[in-house]
Structures are given as C-alpha cells and as structure tokens.
Predict the structure of Universal stress protein.
Amino acid sequence: MKKILVPIDGTERSMHSLDFIKEIYRPEDVEIEIINVKELVFVDGIDMGDEIKASSEFGKQLLERARQKLSGYEVNLYFTFGYAGDEIIRKSQEDNIDIIVMTKSTKKGLTRLIGSCTSYVLRNANCIVMIVPE
C-alpha cells in the first residue's frame, strides 16, 4: 500500500490533486494524508488568539471537505501552523510517505511555474513528488 501526502491550501486548484489521485489509484491501493499548513506572522504586542482560532477552524473545515472528496479512501487529516514547505517535508519524513502530490502554480516565470512551495518540496523531498497540472 502506497502512502500519499497531499498538501491543500484552500484553493480550488489545490483540490485538483484529489481528483488526480482518484483517477489513478484505487482506494485499496493507497493511504492518503491530507495536510493544510497555515502560515502566521506574529507582531509584538498584538494578540493573535482570534486569528489563530479562526485559521484553525477554517483549516479543519477545509480538510473535512477534502476528506469528503475522497469518500471510500483511507484518509488521515493534519492541520498545523508553520512554513508550508518545511511542514510538508517534515510530515513526509515522519510518516514515511511514498509520494507527495501537489498542484502547479498559476503564476508565470520559471520558479513560479510550479510555485515556490512546490519548488522547495521538489528540492528537499526524499520521495517521489508528482505535480498535477491545473
């Protein structure tokens, strides 16, 4: 059984990774980890409690929506705060992930072609990274 990590960021574009997985893998062949990472900027003297709570609730709702898209598959959800690239790499190493499936960026330019986070993951992952076109 393959372990697949799918980072989602709340955009419809990132949800295409889930459709891609359904097209090429049968439910009995994969275990799927879906991760959502919220990056927070902390400023001295400002209470971030409300933003942290709202971000956490939004992330968990997003992950549940993703789970519903993969009905019939074994799916684990993971929400965290941090830098997306670092957290994706950390999670892939901790959980012995076989494949990371990400969508490409819609921006123009070489680095932006796949996105800075995807580029970071490609350079640092110890597993296969599949990039799904839009």
Observations:
- The chain has a mean pLDDT of 86.
- The two ends are 27 Å apart (CA to CA).
- The longest strand covers residues 30-38.
- Residues 2-132 form a domain with the Rossmann fold fold (CATH 3.40.50.620).
